[in-house]
Write a structure and sequence with these properties.
The protein has 226 residues and is α+β, with helices and mostly antiparallel strands. The protein is 49% helix and 16% strand. The protein contains 9 helices and 8 strands. The strands form 2 sheets. Strands 5-4-1-7-8-6 form a 6-stranded mixed β-sheet. β4 and β5 form a beta hairpin. α4 crosses α5 and α4 crosses α7. The longest helix has 20 residues. The radius of gyration is 18 Å and the shape is globular. The structure holds zinc ion.
């Protein structure tokens, strides 16, 4: 099922603060606008697991959007033209990979993927990722192989760009790990992203998948029989 309306992400042109977590986001922050709340950072909007695909390659964009359960249009105000201009798309990494496979005949795309992978690797604090992944594996021994790395890389990317949060996150305390694992389960093991894509309110969507999240969490933790 495709989403009904595009979720919009705005690149802010002034200093902004997230109205949910209170995080100062600085200038040019990427935000969503919720109806009752004001601006939400991508982490609070649960869009921070998506990758940015800059506009410019129509075929790749169309395919990535098609394969992505949840996607968002990134818009920026053009002072010169006095209107919002499309900067690109936020899509799921698997959707982008699949779209790239389909475009693979195009060698330019391959070059761009290598470039993006290199940038991504450079952004990651490898030691932090290894430690975080180790803690995930320790606390959730039944988590499927490899997931601890995906969870750790996401946590690392998330915190690296967010001043003020890094200190707390780098504690690797049980609660920080638990929150990262829950976010991963919600996106990967439940219908949550589909619900968001269908325009459901974030709180309702969270409530709808809560039981599944708890079940998976308990299974990974080894506190219930799988
Ligand atoms: Zn926030």
């Amino acid at each position: 099922m495709k989403q009904t309306a595009d979720i919009k992400v705005f690149i802010s042109s002034r200093d902004s603060t997230c109205d949910e977590c209170g995080e100062p986001l600085g200038r040019h922050a990427w935000i969503t606008l919720a109806q009752e709340k004001g601006a939400l950072c991508l982490a609070c909007a649960d869009l921070d697991h998506l990758l940015f695909l800059p506009a410019g390659d129509a075929a790749l964009t169309r395919r990535a959007r098609k394969h992505s359960t949840l996607s968002a249009v990134v818009l920026k105000w053009s002072r010169a033209r006095k209107r919002y201009e499309r900067q690109g798309l936020l899509v799921e990494s698997e959707a982008l990979a699949r779209a790239e496979e389909e475009c693979l005949a195009d060698s330019e795309v391959r070059a761009r993927r290598r470039e993006r992978d290199a940038v991504r690797r450079a952004d990651l604090d490898q030691q932090y990722v290894a430690e975080f992944a180790g803690r995930v594996r320790e606390l959730y021994p039944n988590c499927p192989p490899g997931r601890e790395v995906a969870i750790a890389e996401h946590a690392c990317l998330k915190y690296s760009g967010r001043v003020g949060r890094s200190a707390a996150a780098k504690d690797l305390d049980e609660n920080a790990i638990r929150l990262a694992v829950i976010a991963h389960i919600r996106h990967v093991e439940t219908e949550y992203d589909q619900l968001l894509a269908n325009g459901q309110d974030r709180r309702e969507a969270r409530a709808a998948v809560e039981a599944v999240v708890s079940r998976v969490l308990a299974r990974w933790q080894g506190t219930v029989e799988s």
